[in-house]
Each structure stands twice: as C-alpha cells, then as structure tokens.
Description:
Blueprint: E1 2-8, E2 11-16, E3 26-35, H1 38-44, E4 60-68, E5 80-83, E6 86-87, H2 93-96, E7 107-108, E8 120-124, E9 128-130, H3 136-139, H4 142-154, E10 166-170, H5 174-186, E11 190-195, H6 198-206, E12 210-213, H7 217-220, E13 226-231, H8 236-242, E14 246-254, H9 268-273, E15 277-280, H10 288-296, H11 299-304, E16 306-310, H12 312-320, E17 330-334
Parallel strand pairs: 10-11, 10-13, 11-12, 13-14, 14-15, 16-17
Antiparallel strand pairs: 1-2, 3-4, 3-8, 3-17, 4-5, 5-9, 6-7
One zinc ion (ZN) binds next to loops.
Amino acid sequence: MKAIQFVEKGKATIGEIPxxxxxxxxxxxxxxxxxxxxxxxxxxxxxxxxxxxxxxxxHEYAGEVIDLASDVTRVRTGSRVAVDPNLPCGTCxxxxxxxxxxxxxxxxxxxxxxxxxxxFSIVRADHLHDIGDMSYDLAALAxxxxxxxxxxxxxxxxxxxxxxxxxxxxxxGPIGLLLGxxxxxxxxxxxxxADINEGRLGFASSLGFTPIASGSRELLVSERAYDFxxxxxxxxxxxxxxxxxVADGGTALLFGVCxxxxxxxxxxxxxxxxxxxxxxxxxxNRNIPEALAVLSGDRERMSRLVTHRLPLxxxxxxxxxxxxxxxxxxxxxxxx
Length: 336
Ligand SMILES: [Zn+2]
Ligand SMILES: [Zn+2]
C-alpha cells in the first residue's frame, strides 16, 4: 500500500509498504480522510513520543472498515468509522483514575504505532466509532475536536449552565476555531478571537465570531473582561498577558502547546485575590463520540475548517515546512 513514512528523525518519504497481518481484535480500514496536525511535525522531529521510526504518521483519521479479525463483533465490514488514536496502558495511576490521556505510557496511532497517512490502517476495533452518514473529511475532525472537548471539560464547562457568558480565544487557526465552535455548542454566546493575521480574523468573523486584532487598543482595555480566555497559539507571551483579561472568578485555559522549556511570569496574588482558574489540557480522553455529535450539529461551519483536501503525494511537503499562507486551516489527505 502507498503510505507516508517517517523513516528517521526529520525525514518523511512516500512509498510502498506492506499492509501487514490483522491481529485478533483488530480491523483493517481503508483510510478516507486524515488530517495534519502540529503534533505530526513534533513526532517527525522526535519531540513528541519516543521516536518510533519508521512510522506512518496521522492520528486524526476516518475510513471504511474492509476486513475484520475473526473475533471482532463490535463493527462490521462496510462500517464508516472515525479512529480514537490513543492507546493507554490501562493500569497506571492515571489510567486507573480514568485519565487515560495522562497515561504514563501513552501510545497512539500515528505516534508509536502506524497511523492514518496511508491507504490502509490496522486499528483496534474498540477504537472505532461509527460516523453514520457524516462525510469522511468532517469525521476526521473528530480527533482534534475531541481534544478541544477534553479541554472544555477540564475547564468545568459541561452544559449551558456552566458555559461562560463571554470568551476570548487567542489564535484563529483550526484548533482555536474548533474551540470557538465547541464553546458555542456548549452554550457560550459571545466569543471573540484575537490574532495578528487579518485574514484569519476575517475567517473567524465569517464563522460568526468577533474579531479583535492582537495588540489593539480594544484588547488593551479588556482587562478582566472575559469569563473564559484560552490560548491556542502556544506562544508564552500570549499566555502571560491573557491572565489580565480573565474576569474575577474566571478561567484561563492553556490549550496551545508551548515549548517544554518555556517559562512565564504570573502573579500568585492575582490568582488568589481574583480566584482565577488556570486549566491545562492534553490530548483527548475518549471524547470521540461526543465530538461526532458536535460535528454533526454544525456540519457546514465545521467543514469550512478543512481548506485543503489532497492526495497522499501532495501531503509530504506539509510535514517538512509550515504552510506560508495563513489562510491554510486544516490540511487533509483525502482518498478520492
Ligand atoms: Zn492532532
Ligand atoms: Zn496508563
């Protein structure tokens, strides 16, 4: 089968590799759509995961079940499915608490095991979720949206009554916009986006969000203005400055991935006196079904987040250099 492979640290190629044998409990899926994520680049450079080369990357994917191990009854041949890529150990302290995303030995398709940037993928059948009549490209957004829902849940937002009355998100890229759409689905009414790029702000505005230029006066006078502020840029300076914008009693969510050695300065007195919540969020914790429900309720706007639907060959350059066009949102391999 044709597949993208990370053959060694920093080196991505495309070529033919064997499909492999189907172990018990597993299904063979024909990959129909797979999304590119920053994490893939970190995997390529061995900054995320153990550097299990050679590796087929891709942890955001959906496809059709075409073969099953004889012991699998949970899914059928022909099922249209999205993949939950996380493979927690099930026995460490975090797993025992139900925090499978924080597993000490977390493995995942596309990180430690071959993932979705290939014609076929062998996946544990209990990691497949039926997508009904949803298009595959939309279903391939279930994984990043599930990460967003894990973050929203960590922030204590579970329904309309716990949704913030207003929210500000830094970074109008695909993950920030998924966060905005998910917050809206949870019941938040006023959601603003701050970004340095006008084109991205225009896109956020077309989705119904309030655009605010980063560094603008409007932002500077917004001290204590938002019940919920999130960083989706991974820029330490943004994280540091966003705390002042959180309303008393409000929440700051650190969703963007800052460099492991980055440090910021915050005032503990401010956190204490204004009773702020600083919330972290990592990966997804079995949120795919919930993500599919949110996607299903907002198909038109969600599918606009996918700006590139490409054959496998055309994906390779995206692993090697960041797209220069800020209008690039989610880039997907789509089997046509
Ligand atoms: Zn991802
Ligand atoms: Zn574990």
